[in-house]
Amino acid sequence: MSNHLASETSPYLLQHAENPVEWYPWGAEALARAKAEQRPILLSVGYSSCHWCHVMKRESFEDPSIAALMNELFVNIKVDREERPDIDQIYMKAVQAMSGRGGWPMTVFLTPDGIPFFGGTYYPPEPRPGVPSFPDLLRTIHDAWEHRRDKVLAGGTRLLDTLRQGSDSGTSAAPASLELVDAAVATLERSYDATQGGFGPAPKFPQPVTLEVLLRHHARTGTPSSLAMVVHTLRRMAAGGMRDHLGGAFHRYSVDARWLVPHFEKMLSDNALLARIYLDAWKLTGSDDLADIVVEVLDDLVRDFTDDGGGFYAARDADSEGVEGRFYVWSPEEIADVLGDDAELFCRAYNVTPGGNFEGASILHLPHPIEVIAASEQRSTSEIDSLLARSRAVLLEHRTTRIEPFRDKKVIVSWNAFTIRAFAEAGAALGRADYIDRAVEAADFIWNTLRTDDRLLHSWIAGKTSGGGFLDDYAGLGNALLSLHAATLDSRWLDRARSLADEVLVLFYEEESATVFDTAHDAETLVLRPRDSTDGATPSGPSLAAELFARAGALTDEPRYRAAARTIVDHEVEAMQQFGPAFGRMLSVVDRLEARPVEVALLVPATCNPYDLIKAAHAEFLPGGVIAGRIEQEGSPNPAHGVHPTDTEIPVLAGRGPIDGKPTAFVCEGYACGLPDHDPEMVRQRLAAMPNQA
After folding, report:
1. How is domain 178-235+263-316+408-593 classified at the CATH fold level?
2. pTM confidence score
């Protein structure tokens, strides 16, 4: 018999719709019942591709006796963290404050008013050392509620006050400066794993926003170690089992220190952010192996994450057939059956052995560089590369005959924004018009499907949309559309990015607090209004907003954008001083604001191909750079004879147009522009020669 989740659209909630637990979605009905019956709320938060969420579902939520206990003692609410990041953020902070750690599944006990008073993550059905059984925990919480309610309520109120104080932290007297970036880099150097790459012990996460800070630090200072840490980490991740070597994209994270054994879920957001960091590392090094990974990741997203309407799906599950990783692992016998004579070389290269490295099977990984394999085989590197590529393609095709992990078909605006930006920037820099077209397709889908009454929505699945967008949806999409304008020179993306920047100021900025919040001022009232400037798996909403204002301010010279960017980063100075690496994207915005201003204007006649000039403008890593332009349409005003409609909006384009009927670039450095260029190679060389420090 179905519970109250049966009519939901979230794949995660629907996975629990047949549980014997009387689950409710978050909403008025469940909250009203808790208040009417004065019962505590058991809030369970997770997501569809979470392995341990599946384990707790199987062990506890499908168990009739445990479900009966939950139904007797609590009002039970299930939340998809990807649909309601606001709820997840509030109660994750509470769990972290209470237990010192967090994760999913998240289990939180609330008063009928939604105030948290106890919480944790996964609980087993039987007690384990240091961890009570889930049934014992349920009884203990019930006993406390019935017999020590005053203490429970007082403790919850104190916790909420602490969370509110953390959310309402004031602005520092000192402005944000590059000293914050340098200090964070020094902290990262101390925790860097020089052997395996990455930072700290296992488990290891990709941390693309952290790597971005190091790339910017290298570009500004020339410090070799900052670049070396990034490149070594990226190569070790790409060689390890955390990467799906057949598909191309990355799994969520590695449970060990050497990137071998992943948690096998694949997230759209991770791969979009990683594609951009590999792209920027390629720009700074010229190493083709890094560009190859960009292409393989994006090709996998096109192949495996694409919705027919143009958006990108959220995730692939970690499990298939109820077993984590089964879809991705191999035995020597399977490889031999599929590859025949090529199997021996492939198994040596990817370390596929009879004993395996994961529960008797082998996760594909590259323990040795291709050059070493080629030398041992006494063959050329290009020949080995070609043979292994052919074998991977054959195995990838064969893998489609297996039972696939569940695909979460939610289209989340912020995650699609990261992906649009990655495709636009990679397409422009690598000369891949197909990537730019894919970015345009996704952006059109988001704008046409997930925007109504001049407001963004948060997610879409199977024709149904969720509630209002969050700060990271608005600011993330604004940043993506600025990148899409730079890749296409289409003014509509620039206009839409500016609209989103204006909406962030109206909906999310609070003058009294001098910063932005993660929910709009007219969003559902929760126990506190969420605001978190630290990065998680994705950049924080406030950091994305600061980045949007910094980029839009540089393009438009709009004082209110520049002021908003400064205000947001200055608000976090004290926190960045204390926990620098946790503010990766915010630190990158600080670096951007202090970087030497570089503006590139691209003006192209309607009859000419713009892509060679666009590629040249995107070839270099420009910490303070912005790119704008337009493709002159037939009958549009010639700047030599009149004012173009966008001249007053984008100063770098004012009074400029194509020279001699050819695609023309104007490169401006420190607010002074050089002579126009037609030659893409000359444009690239001029940008490469520019200093990055103001």
Report:
1. Glycosyltransferase (1.50.10)
2. 0.95
